[in-house]
């Protein structure tokens, strides 16, 4: 008979197994707690990034509105010059940098002649034969007939290269259609994208508003000289009364007036370095809609870091 108050002795081997199980359970709990903490921290960081990106995005949109206002003020001392120079605006907790280019300073894909298009591609570093072929292919893309321009491309040429589409035989509706033209590559498109438009309305760009990529299309122009011309133009204040900078041939770059249609790049940066960029093309005036300051022709956002 066992003595009262005494418990059976647990074998040492079983006690060791129980200890190991407890250690494993504690380790599992630590891992679970660590995972929950990591998830909570990650979600917190994601929420903060989303908040910062949203704040920066609306600040960048405010930059578009600010540009529309300063482009339309009647006082020439206050009016912004749409030649690509940077303007800085403080908006709430963001610093907004706005760059504006009058669309007349760009090469219009629907109106520019083959010579102008060829010069554009030559300025982008394309060999002469390929530049001429691309210009002719653009002509065939936008004209309403199926006649092939010299070195151009119509439907049969696209089919021969394995494309399921042919020449559009209609005007470009947007700049990105240029990627569908026979001979165009993404690499070349990235070089000329900022230099072309479908809203310019001129056969040749107004160099007073032209970006670097268009200045480079001037025959004999070098990158160094083109950059100097851009910097001199941006440093010139049209309202100062000082003479404007000159092109190598003596042509003055008179950055006055404008077409009323502008490409705007607005980048808002927060104090912690988060930034968002909005790119838009607008036309001043509401297009018949009462109370509208401008009409949006193109809008692209989502560039965030």
Task: Write structural notes for this entry.
The protein has a domain of 98 residues: Ribonucleotide Reductase Protein R1, domain 1 (Orthogonal Bundle), CATH 1.10.40.60. Helices cover 38% and strands 17% of the residues.
Write the layout of secondary structure elements.
Blueprint: H1 12-72, E1 83-91, E2 94-102, E3 107-108, H2 114-123, H3 128-142, H4 155-160, H5 186-192, E4 196-197, H6 212-215, H7 223-235, E5 261-270, E6 275-284, E7 294-304
Parallel strand pairs: 3-4
Antiparallel strand pairs: 1-2, 2-5, 5-6, 6-7
Poorly predicted ranges: none
Strand neighbour order, sheet with most strands: 1-2-5-6-7
The tally of beta strands, per DSSP, is: 7
- CATH topology of one domain, what is it called? Ribonucleotide Reductase Protein R1, domain 1
As a percent range, the share of strand residues is 15-25%
Distance between the termini: 80 Å
Annotated CATH architecture of one domain: Orthogonal Bundle
Shape: extended
CATH level-4 homologous superfamily of one domain: EpsJ-like
Summarize the structure.
The protein is an alpha+beta fold.
What descriptors fit this protein?
single chain; 305 residues; alpha+beta; Ribonucleotide Reductase Protein R1, domain 1; 17% strand
């Amino acid at each position: 008979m066992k003595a009262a108050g005494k418990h059976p002795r647990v074998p040492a081997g079983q006690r060791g197994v129980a200890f190991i199980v407890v250690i494993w359970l504690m380790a599992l709990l630590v891992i679970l707690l660590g995972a929950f903490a990591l998830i909570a921290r990650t979600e917190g960081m994601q929420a903060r990034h989303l908040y910062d990106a949203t704040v920066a995005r609306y600040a960048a949109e405010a930059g578009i509105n600010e540009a529309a206002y300063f482009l339309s003020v009647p006082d020439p001392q206050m009016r912004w010059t749409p030649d690509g120079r940077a303007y800085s605006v403080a908006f709430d907790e963001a610093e907004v940098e706005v760059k504006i280019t009058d669309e007349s300073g760009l090469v219009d894909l629907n109106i520019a002649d083959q010579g102008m298009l060829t010069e554009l591609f030559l300025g982008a570093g394309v060999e002469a034969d390929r530049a001429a072929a691309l210009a002719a292919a653009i002509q065939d893309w936008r004209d309403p007939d199926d006649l092939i321009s010299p070195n151009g491309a119509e439907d049969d040429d696209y089919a021969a290269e394995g494309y399921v589409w042919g020449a559009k035989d209609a005007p470009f509706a947007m700049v990105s259609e240029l990627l569908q033209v026979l001979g165009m590559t993404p690499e070349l498109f990235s070089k000329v994208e900022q230099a072309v438009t479908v809203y310019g309305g001129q056969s040749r760009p107004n160099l007073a508003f032209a970006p670097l990529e268009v200045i480079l299309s001037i025959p004999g122009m070098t990158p160094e000289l083109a950059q100097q011309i851009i910097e001199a133009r941006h440093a010139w204040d049209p309202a100062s009364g000082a003479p404007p900078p000159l092109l190598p041939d003596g042509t003055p770059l008179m950055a006055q007036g404008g077409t009323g249609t502008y490409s705007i790049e607005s980048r808002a940066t927060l104090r912690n370095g988060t930034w968002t960029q909005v790119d838009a093309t607008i036309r001043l005036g509401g297009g018949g809609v009462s109370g509208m300051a401008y009409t949006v022709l193109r809008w692209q956002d989502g560039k965030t870091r």
